[in-house]
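Protein modeling request. Please complete all fields; requests missing the sequence field cannot be processed.
Requester role: graduate student
Desired output: 3D structure, token encoding
Chains: 1
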Amino acid sequence: MSGGVDSSVAALELARAGHRVSALFMKNWNEPLEDGRCRWEDDVADAMEVCEKLAIPLNTVDLSQAYWDGVFRDFLDEYARGRTPNPDVLCNREVKFKAFLEHARAVGGDCVATGHYARIRRGEAGHELLKGADANKDQSYFLYTLGQAQLALTLFPVGHLPKPEVRARAGSAGLVTHAKKDSTGICFIGEQRFREFLARFLPAQRGAIETLDGRVIGEHQGVIYYTLGQREGLGIGGVRGAVEGPWFVVEKDVRRNVLRVTQGHDHPALLSTRLEAEALSWVAGTAPRLPLRCAAKTRYRQPDQACVIESISDGRLRAVFDAPQRAVTPGQSVVFYAGEVCLGGGIIDRSAP
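Delivered output (353 residues):
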């Protein structure tokens, strides 16, 4: 029970279906916000109101050490390497469906339920992870590391519902979270000024912003604070000899402490037709037979992109796309699909034209 509308309605639906429901609130981040409060304090207050309304017990569990060790250390390490990690994927793998699931089982739970927009199809051959019915909210991208053991003990009670219907059901039931804004920002850390937040843990040095031909046109605040394809926050003014228009990040050279940029939203330097991925995870427990024609997403909410995946070596694969992909970013996840079925995915290591 996160204190948001999705987990609130998940609990509501389970209670209405006759399940014995207990709520668990995770405290995963105890660092205070700028005003001295912890973000979880407001959320747990909302969770308590929902649970009182539904007449279900609420307990809390402090998993901040598991979050730090399993998610945040990796998050910092990846940024230090100049990559852009996805903490939501790590949090699902290491905290929600590992430490949290283990705790829930230890205190007597038969399974866990969350407010994720995804579905599970159970069959004799195993469990399949399906996209959420609401294409605008589908969260299967963040869940691709779940395997058979986790899916067997998991329920997604709102995965078949569109988001407006979830809010409507919360409103009809008188739940205080019915109009609560969706959480954004870093998983469990929330909405903070990202550059200032990261600088608390990874101080960085200013350096040159260069064009692709090596001309210095500005100064960056630290290459680790930027991501490929980024347009905002570069601080590049009028450049002699260049047309008026935005600049985009195309490379982060951590060794030289140089940020390389170019103009043009779809400049060839931002486009890739292939990528290599590592740290592979397959929902079925074993890799599908490769090569395989399927679809892929290299970022959340991206439309499915047709590709062929092929093995490079044990634990690594190559995805070759039918159409060029923009700003394929090392450290992010590439997730593979066969229609509505999420097959699995991996971490992007590199890309090529």
